[in-house]
Amino acid sequence: MTHQVESKVTKPGPALSAPATIEHGVPGYLASDEALIHLLNRYPAELFDINRYEFDADGQVSLTTGTRGHADGATVLEAIKAGKLWVNLRGIEHAHPGLWGEIQMAFQKFAPGIGAAKARKMTGQLILSSPTTKVPYHFDPAGVVLFHLRGVKRVWVYPVSDLFVPQQSMEKVIMRETTEELPYQRIYDGAAYRFDVVPGEALAWPLYAPHRVENQEGLCVSLSMDYQTWGSRITTGAHRANGVLRRWGWQIASMNKTPMFARAALWAASLAFTRLGYVKNNIKDIAREFDVADAPTTEAVEANDTRKAA
Length: 310
Known about the structure:
Structural class: alpha+beta
Helix content: 25-40%
Strand content: 25-35%
CATH architecture of the largest domain: Sandwich
Shape: globular
Mean pLDDT: 86
């Protein structure tokens, strides 16, 4: 069922022209405390991304990152429940083949309906996030399906247009010159699709659609699956080539007005540009500023809230 709050979404279009929710059928016990603690205890530390977002009154975001340190799985899970953390467990397709198998079976059932029947290069990350955390306005340079397993997550999905994601900004993200976050204004929300996603639902959206997230209830657990089709791979390569050509002073046509044969030529050029070193990852690692093992417990947070109320 679709828990769509605003707009007119009903079901996926033939090429996923609008975002939509789909029942996925992945077992919820895979997101139980016991299952998560077991997974966290054995998960490679180098595949942990631990982030903490802070927002000011104007919605501007600051990001710090952390490490798990000496914390065991139970401690990490408690820190997520009590804090404002967004923890990504990357490489889930290799590290948790049982969960990945369930995701693959679910995806194959509805992939044709979202234009992803021939999806390739599929990867996944399990996202564990605190009950009140938010993720800022951004876009992903791949097809994405968010399989939700626990908690309630509110997601805004915005149109793919120059107003919401300028093509030049898209090129910089794809070229790894900047991070995926984009400038955001609250007025954008008037054009967004808004979903309250509950366990058992998968949310899919059009390629490159900007989106942002606010958790609503409980520990939230989702698996975000990235995928490429030949069409998306060629289009992404075309954006990458355009980014290099724009840097050299070329006039760049709108991708919406670039036919597929021209995109394919640009994609081929992007492969050459990459081999020649014209495309480089310029994003610097953010200094790690906290250790999950030092995060407050739920009891400490509740006690602090009680003192504030008094």
